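Model it.
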Amino acid sequence: MRYLLAQILIIVSILSCTESLANLFQKIPRDTVSIFDAKSDRRLAVSIRGAYNPNKLQPDLTSAHYGECIDIKMRNMTDSVMGVVLRCGTMLLSRDSASQNMVVTKTLYYTLQPREELFDRVYAMCGQLHKNAPDISIRYDVGALADEPLLKLARVIEKTDSQSKAGQYAVWAVTDGATKDDLGEDFEALQQSQALLNKAKLPINILGKHRQMAVLQKQNKTQNAKPVPTEDKQSISSPNTEIEINVEQISSDISGNLAVSDAVLPSVETEKDEFGSNETVDSINDDKTGQEGGNYWLLFASFSVILFGLYYFWQKKPATKQEKDNLV
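Modeled.
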């Protein structure tokens, strides 16, 4: 009887151990789809916003511009397990014209159980230098992959783990043609940014004295632009053109953006919308951490029980017929 119980105990422990290992080292299903496609097919509900809360201390938030600066909430709308991926280089498009679009700088994989809801933080960087950084009031839509220059840089940032000011400066050098004249004289960061641009094989000199052409991917469109006569240097923009602007215009744009931002930002009470409050996000993240810790403890306990069962099996195994005869 004891021998049978020991066998049952070992089998149960092995099953528990297998489940724990599956939870800890769960592989992404082969039919993994992009979040963009899953959302388009209505199989996935997605809500994205900035992570920065101006009314709350957030020691875990490196910056509102880069790092884990975006909150994402997903819900599997199907009755089957779904594997989704948010690829590095994906554009996050701001619904607020005064706030910057973002580019994802680290690929993230998720496996959602049927009807499961999941919260997470996304690594991203700002893509429009002279607009506002995202905060919890700014909502985003998932876009397609960025154009080639920015996509190449985003992949270099991911590969070198440059989720830092240097990476952000390099992104602005591509999207806005920014140089040290725009970014300041943190030469250590600028040199690191230039190294990233060189590694991405982009012909950009972030240390240059003069503003460069903004957005390399739009160079082929400038040939169709019609010149607009002006008495002095002004900002000229159309769907097909992006032309150099002067310092005075930049200052006025920034002031205008700040004024618009103050006018449109909702109160803190609007946090409790379809996304959920910050407290909800934090608590669910804590729950995820607790579940991972629980998996480790379950794995440890399972191994311990297996070892004990094996010891008991070898020490207390029933005597053979020959051994019984010898005893008699």
